[in-house]
Amino acid sequence: MVAHSSDDSAGKVTLLGIPIDSLTMDAAVMRVLHFLESHRQHQVVTPNSEMLVEAVRNREFRRILQSSSLNLPDGAGLLWMARLTRQSLPHRVTGVDTMQELCRVLTPDHPVFLLGAKPGVAEKAALRLKERNARLKIAGTYAGSPRESDVREIIARINASNPSVLFVAFGSPAQELWIRRYLPSLTSVKVAMGVGGAFDFLTGVQKRAPQIVQKLGCEWAWRLVREPWRARRILNAVLVFPSLVVRYGKSEPLS
Questions:
Q1: How far is CA 8 from CA 5, 42, 69, in A?
Q2: In angstroms, how far is the first alpha carbon of the chain from the final one?
Q3: Domains parsed from the chain with CATH numbers
Q4: pLDDT-based confidence at 206, cuts 50/70/90?
Q5: What is the C-alpha to C-alpha distance for residues 123 and 199, in angstroms, rounded to an integer?
Q6: What is the pTM of this model?
Q7: Among 48-57, 141-150, 202-211, 224-233, which is the least confidently predicted range?
Q8: What pLDDT is recorded for position 8?
Q9: CA separation for the pair 218, 90 (Å, rounded)
């Protein structure tokens, strides 16, 4: 059984009808560790401004965000818009940082599988994670893809390796849709989390913005300079998302 979020709104804020967990990095890691001791499966999502705009347009994706076990505030825009709507998010809790912090404390009792990115990248990312925690058990890695033609092979590989934790780097919303559809078929997985470009960041395939840029919440400008082909998605984050929140606030824009 895949666990869904409860109706208890304590410790959450709501933007455009999407609940976001208001917690620190340490609290997020503790929450995931608690999930690993449960008897149900859990989907962890890391919403940012861009993803919330997508959720307005994509009903299936919106349902996933509204029912996931944990929604971590990945983007600075969420903190700003929470404040605008008289709510509070204490910190950004990014997917790549959460993945690293979780893997830093995991024991061999909870093996990890890395799925996604280009061939060879997940293997290198696994080595980087092992450097931070020699006790971390990597159950397996595989590039794969979110294509329907790859599903059977992916499920077979994951089930054969028996992981407790699955990180999926297919990009959003493909990774969240994939997890929701196929997590019930992954017999040993207790926690599945979409991590976007995390493997690329870990291995240096892509560079993260400098810390000062991250703290200022200006990663969108860094990405626009380095990846101008993402201009439309970046504009969704810095222009469309704030305008939607100004208009609708906590409410879901669609009936």
A1: 8, 17, 12
A2: 28
A3: 2-203 (3.40.50)
A4: confident
A5: 9
A6: 0.90
A7: 224-233
A8: 45
A9: 18
